Amino acid sequence: MIHQPLASEKGRDDQLLENSLLFFLSQKHRNLINCDHTIQNLYGLLKIMKICSMFN
Asked: Which residue has the higher pLDDT, 14 or 32?
């Protein structure tokens, strides 16, 4: 598979982005961390971004 290394690199980038968002929220908006709905919306947005990036 030629695309396998690219996929794993993209996966690492997604993980870094996800960690960065969660870190930002925990530092800047501690009250939002307690709101499950906000976290679910963020994960939904991340999933949409991942799906869109597959077609770019």
From this structure: 14
Sign of torsion over alpha carbons 44, 1, 10, 49: negative
Question: Distance between CA atoms of 21 and 39, rounded to whole angstroms?
Answer: 10
pLDDT at 56 over 80: no
Under 8 Å between Cβ of 35 and 56: no
Nearest to 55 by CA among 18, 17, 10, 16: 10
Q: Give the pTM.
A: 0.33
Query: CA 1, 14, 45 angle in degrees (round to 5)?
Result: 120
